[in-house]
Write a structure and sequence with these properties.
This protein has 168 residues and is of the alpha+beta class. Helices cover 30% and strands 28% of the residues. It has one domain: Aminopeptidase (3-Layer(aba) Sandwich). Helix 1 packs across helix 3.
């Protein structure tokens, strides 16, 4: 099975939401209750986030189904992946690697070599994947993370998150 990636238009944000929401069960018991709205998202979330990020959908060539999504934005001197999800039931089949490689290429095309993302410290499956993709834990203390680059990441920080980084 092959994959393709499309940039999500506003009318495709329902597909983005489906990918994120399909993983809610993985986060409901480990996330701070105040952060759960970032893991079970609604249309108001889609409207807010569509304005500040580029969203990309991973589509299966054979079925046309959207089975993953990743968001991308430039923040200061680095690029940031704010949301990266493979739809529940489709993990472990090469989709995440394909999507991450696309986002790395997007980083380079934008003229950057520093790519960052958050991962919850208890989301071991996600940490393991990111490490396989070449990311390392860059900062683990909340105070250090939210102080970086004049607080540019503070609005995106969730309790219990580690900041991971990959230099491409």
């Amino acid at each position: 099975m092959g994959f393709t990636i499309i940039k999500a238009s506003r009318d495709k944000m329902d597909e983005v939401r489906d990918c994120i929401n399909s993983n809610f069960d993985l986060y409901k018991d480990i996330s701070n209750p105040n952060d759960l709205s970032e893991h079970q998202v609604d249309d108001a979330w889609a409207e807010r986030n569509y304005k500040i990020r580029e969203f990309y959908l991973l589509q299966d060539k054979d079925t046309g189904e959207f089975t993953g999504e990743g968001s991308f934005q430039v923040l200061g001197k680095f690029t940031y992946i704010g949301y990266f999800y493979i739809k529940a039931g489709f993990q472990g089949q090469g989709r995440g690697k394909f999507l991450m490689q696309f986002l790395e290429e997007r980083t380079i095309k934008k003229g950057f070599h520093d790519l960052r993302l958050f991962v919850h410290e208890r989301a071991t499956w996600a940490k393991d994947f990111y490490k396989k993709m070449g990311f390392d834990v860059y900062k683990s203390k909340k105070t250090e993370i939210i102080a970086l680059d004049k607080g540019i990441l503070k609005p995106f920080y969730e309790e219990g998150s580690l900041l991971m980084r990959k230099i491409i």
